[in-house]
Amino acid sequence: MQAGGFARLGKILSPRTSDRLRELYPDHARFRSTIDMQRFRFGRGEYRYFSYPLPADVDRLRHELYLELLPVARQWSLALHLGAEYPPELDDFLRMCHRSGQRRPTPLLLRYRAGDFNCLHQDLYGALFFPFQVIVSLSEPGTDFSGGELLLVEQRPRAQSIGRALSLEKGEAVAIATRFRPVQGKRGIYRSTFRHGVSPVTHGERYTLGIIFHDAA
After folding, report:
1. What stretch of H or E contains 1?
2. HSE (side-chain half, CA atoms, 13 Å) at 22
3. How many domains does the chain have?
4. Percent over 70 (pLDDT), the chain
5. Is pTM beyond 0.85 here?
6. Is residue 78 domain-resident?
7. Mind listing the pLDDT tens digit for each residue in 18-56?
8. Do residues 217 and 96 make contact, with C-beta atoms less than 8 angstroms apart?
9. Which CATH number covers residue 146?
10. CA–CA separation, 171 vs 161, rounded Å?
11. Residues 99-126: pLDDT tens digits?
12. How far apart are CA 64 and CA 208, in angstroms?
């Protein structure tokens, strides 16, 4: 994670669980809001934020992945002198969010069809944020869809940006930096800014699960 601002986590969902989550998309009762990306000039396509209570599989992953990423989150906070507090349990961190007015759940399902894409962005919903988020593919590239690579762009101070394109297999996850990462420079550690997006889908449908650990204002 330190070297590139992202880390592949391997396949963390079975095909059956991936299908089960993807099949939730038409169930409006499961979601608090639907975003038309073209309307807001975020890109083209659609995504939906889950309501509380989250589906059991999503809630389990959110808790387990928080614990897995927590040690690195604390290291980054120290390296960048952020003074951010990340308690030992996700529920404690969410209570911090809620006390700060960030009470709306942020895990989401995203659906892309042919021609859809997502502009480069950061998922920040208030003053409090966790330095990582996790993206899980619920569709199989080359079978369910073509194109639609995950795009990661790192903007280094006084330098050209670095871009990466990742293709995730069905059930595979990647953890990415939410806002920035620490980089060792000649004069000490500096912040390198991250944004992510999705390249245009050329065929079929691409579904992904986004697990964001902080809640929204």
Report:
1. none
2. 21
3. 1
4. 99
5. yes
6. yes
7. 999 999 999 999 999 999 999 999 999 999 999 999 999
8. no
9. 2.60.120.620
10. 29
11. 999 999 999 999 999 999 999 999 999 9
12. 18
